[in-house]
Amino acid sequence: MSERSKVTIVGAGATGATCAEVLAQRDYAEIVLIDIKEGLPQGKALDINQMAPILGFEATVSGTNDYADTAGSDVVVITAGLPRQPGMSRDDLVQTNEKIVKSVTEQTIAGSPDAVIIVLSNPLDAMCHVAKNVSGFPKERVFGQAGILDTARYRTFIAWATGASVKDVHALVLGGHGDQMVPLVSATTVGGVPLRKLVSEEQIQSMVERTAVGGGEIVKLLGTSAWYAPGAACAQMVDSVLLDEKRVLPCTAYLEGEYGIDGLYMGVPVKLGAKGIEQILEVDLDDPERAALAKSADAVRDVVSVLST
Ligand code: 2OP
C-alpha cells in the first residue's frame, strides 16, 4: 500500500501526459493516467516510468481505462476534451467538452468523493462551472488552471524584452481564459522595478496583446493546442495542494462578490494549500484594468449561459 498521495489525471493526451511527466519527476505522488482510448494511458505511463531510472525518480505512474483504478485520489486533474484547431476559439469547444467534462467528473468523484478537482479542459472557465455543478463539491475544491499559463506567457515576453531572468519577472494575469484576459501591468515588476520604468508603453501593449492571444499563436503554429506549459502549470497547482505549499497563484476560482463579480469562475490570485483554495486575494486595479476585467467577465458569462449542466 503506497503512502504517496494519489493524483488522477483524466485525459492522456499531450497535456495530461506532460502534467504526469512533470509530477512524476517531483517524486512524491502516485499518478494514475486515465483515458477512454485503450493503450494510450498505459503506453504513456510505461514510457514515463522508464524515464525514472535515467532521471532519478520512482516509477509510480500507471495507465488505465477503468475508473475503479482512480478511487481514493487526493487530486483529480481533468484535461479531457477536444483541443482547439486552427480557426477555432476556445468557446467553439463548449458543447462537446461540456459532455466530456460532465461524464468524467461523475465517474471520478464516484470513487474519490474528497478529492480536489483541477480543470484544464477548454473553454476553461465554463468547464469549471460544469465540474462544480456536476460534483456538488464546495468551491474550494473545484478550480481551474489558466492564469499560471497566461502569466507564464506574459513573463516570458517580458524577460525577452528586458533581457532579465524570467525568474525575476513578477506578474499577474487576471480574468477569463480568453482573448479578453487582463495582464495587470500595474502589478508587473522585474526584480521589484515596475515594468513601466523599463520598457516603453508601446512595447508593453504589444506584450499584453501577444499574451491575450498566446494560446492562438501556438494553435496557428502547431495546428493544435499547447501542452508543455499548460501541463507544467497544472503540476504546479497540484504541488501547492498536495505539499500544502500555500503558493499564491493565479487560478480560476468561483467568485462570490470578489472583484465585484458574483457567481462566476474567473482567474484571480488565490492561496492554494491542502484544503484547495484557502483564500482569494484582491489586488487594487486601476480604472482601465477594472473595465477590462468587467469585459472579460461578460465574455465568460456569454459562454456559461449556453451550458446545460
Ligand atoms: C492555451 O492557452 C490550451 O488553452 C490552452 O494554450
Helicity range: 40-55%
Order of H and E elements: EHEHHEEHEHEHEEEEEHHHEEEH
Bound molecules: (2S)-2-hydroxypropanoic acid
What is the average per-residue confidence, as pLDDT, rounded to a whole number? 96
Corresponding CATH superfamily of the largest domain: Lactate dehydrogenase/glycoside hydrolase, family 4, C-terminal
Counting structural domains, the number is 2
Ranges where pLDDT stays below 50 over 5 or more residues in a row are none
Largest pleated sheet: 6 strands, parallel
Q: What is the fold named in CATH at topology level of the largest domain?
A: L-2-Hydroxyisocaproate Dehydrogenase, Chain A, domain 2
Question: What structural class results from the helix and strand content?
Answer: alpha/beta
| CATH class descriptor of the largest domain | Alpha Beta
Radius of gyration: 19 Å
What amount of the residues lies in strands? 15-25%
Strand order of the largest sheet: 3-2-1-4-5-6
What would CATH call the architecture of the largest domain? Alpha-Beta Complex
What general form does the structure show?
A: globular
Count of alpha and pi helical runs: 10
